[in-house]
Design a protein that fits this description.
The longest helix has 19 residues, at 301-319. The chain has twelve helices and twelve strands. Helices cover 34% and strands 14% of the residues. Strands 8-7-6-9-10-11-12 form a seven-stranded parallel beta sheet, sandwiched between helices. Strands 2-1-3-4-5 form a five-stranded parallel beta sheet.
Length: 342
C-alpha cells in the first residue's frame, strides 16, 4: 500500500514511521494538500491529511480521478473536508476520534490559569527585570462559575478535571450527558443563560454550519463583565472582529486561543524571517489579556503516538476490506450532527 502524508511536521515523522508496522510505502511531504499539490498524490492508494489541508470538493474530484478511494485525517475535526462530496465520490474518510481528550483539556486549563493569574504580564515584566507585583494581582479559580460549551469527549474531560477546583459547572450541548450531571453536578442551560452566568467559558465544539460564529457580538455582549474565554476547538466558532471589540472595551477580560479563524498558512510555520501581515492576529497577539498558542493543545507525546497508530489502523482496515469504526462518511457510521462530536 502506498500512502502520501500531506502537512507532515517534523515531530510526526518518527511516530509515523514507528506506527507503520505493515511496511507501507510512505511519501511524507511538508506541503499542504491543495489544488497546487494534489498531483503529488498520483500513484498512491491512500491520502493522509491534517487540519489545515484543503480537502474541498474540487480537490477530492482530482483525487478520485487518480483512483484514490481512501482518505485519513490525523485529527478529530474534519471541517476542512467536504465529507458529502467524498461520499458521492465513494472516497472513504476516517478520523482519529479519541487520541487524547486530556491533552486538549489540560491545555485549556493551562490557558485558563495563565490568564486568571496574569502570567503573560508577569513574564513581560520579568524580562525587563521588573519584579513588582502591583500589576499582576490575579484571582482564585475556586468558587468561580465555569461554562462548558460542548460536553463531548474533551468537554467531559474538562468537567472531570475542573471538578477538583471546587467550582460551579454549567454546560451547553444539544445532547445532555447525564453522567456529568451525576458525577460533577453539572447544570445544563441554554447558551445565552450560560454566557450570562459564567466567569470563565471554555469552548469544545466541532466547526460546522451551525457553530460557525456561534460566539458573536450578541453573545459577547451578554457575557459577564471581564469574563475569560478559552477556545481550543476551532477558530471560526468565534467571530474574531467582534471578539476584539469586546476585548478592547474590557467586556471580555481575557481570551485564550489555541485556534484562530484564519490560521491556515500561519500556524505550524516559523515566520521569523517572513513576518505575518494578518492585522487581526497581530492585534490579538499585542493585547495583554490575550494568550495565543499555535494549535498545539493536541501536541503531547501520548497524543501524537495515538494519532499515528489510529491512522495506520484505519489504513490497515481499508487495505484488508474491513470497515473502520472511525469512518465518518459510510452508511454504517453516519456523521454525527449534535454538538458533542468533540
Amino acid at each position: 500500500m502506498k500512502v502520501i502524508f500531506y502537512s507532515t511536521k517534523v515531530f510526526e515523522i518518527e511516530p509515523i514511521r514507528n506506527a507503520n508496522k505493515n511496511g507501507y510505502k510512505l511519501s511524507l511531504f511538508s506541503d499542504p494538500l491543495n489544488m497546487s499539490t494534489v498531483e503529488l498524490a498520483r500513484g498512491h492508494d491512500a491520502v493522509c491529511v491534517f487540519t489545515n489541508d484543503d480537502v474541498s470538493g474540487e480537490v477530492l474530484k482530482k483525487l478520485s480521478l487518480m483512483g484514490i478511494k481512501n482518505l485519513a485525517t490525523r485529527a478529530v475535526g474534519y471541517d476542512n473536508i467536504d465529507v458529502e462530496a467524498a461520499k458521492q465520490l465513494k472516497i472513504a474518510v476516517a478520523n482519529v476520534p479519541d487520541y487524547s481528550p486530556n491533552a486538549v483539556a489540560e491545555h485549556a486549563i493551562m490557558m485558563m490559569l495563565s490568564l486568571i493569574k496574569k502570567n503573560k504580564t508577569t513574564e513581560a515584566q520579568i524580562q525587563k527585570q521588573n519584579f513588582s507585583i502591583d500589576n499582576i494581582i490575579g484571582s482564585n479559580v475556586q468558587g468561580k462559575t465555569i461554562g462548558l460549551i460542548g460536553t463531548g469527549k474533551i468537554g467531559s474531560t474538562m468537567a472531570k478535571l475542573l471538578n477538583g477546583f471546587d467550582v460551579k459547572l454549567l454546560a451547553y450541548d444539544l445532547k445532555i450527558n447525564t453522567e456529568l450531571k451525576r458525577l460533577y453536578n453539572v447544570t445544563y442551560l441554554d447558551l445565552e443563560s450560560l454566557c450570562k452566568q459564567s466567569d470563565i467559558i471554555t469552548i469544545h465544539l466541532p466547526l460546522n454550519a451551525k457553530t460557525k460564529y456561534l460566539i458573536d457580538d450578541h453573545l459577547l455582549s451578554k457575557m459577564k463583565y471581564k469574563v475569560i474565554i478559552i477556545n481550543t476547538a476551532r477558530g471560526s466558532i468565534v467571530n474574531t472582529s467582534d471578539l476584539i471589540k469586546h476585548l478592547k472595551s474590557k467586556q471580555i477580560g481575557g481570551y485564550g486561543m489555541d485556534v484562530y479563524e484564519f490560521e491556515r498558512g500561519v500556524f505550524f510555520f516559523n515566520h521569523e524571517n517572513n513576518p505575518i501581515k494578518d492585522k487581526l492576529l497581530l492585534e490579538l497577539i499585542s493585547l495583554k489579556n490575550v494568550l495565543v498558542t499555535p494549535h498545539q493543545a493536541f501536541a503531547t507525546d501520548e497524543a501524537i503516538y495515538n494519532i499515528a497508530n489510529t491512522t495506520f489502523h484505519n489504513l490497515y482496515c481499508w487495505e484488508n476490506n474491513i470497515h473502520s469504526e472511525n469512518e465518518i462518511n459510510s452508511n454504517t457510521n453516519e456523521i454525527k450532527t449534535h454538538l458533542a462530536v468533540l
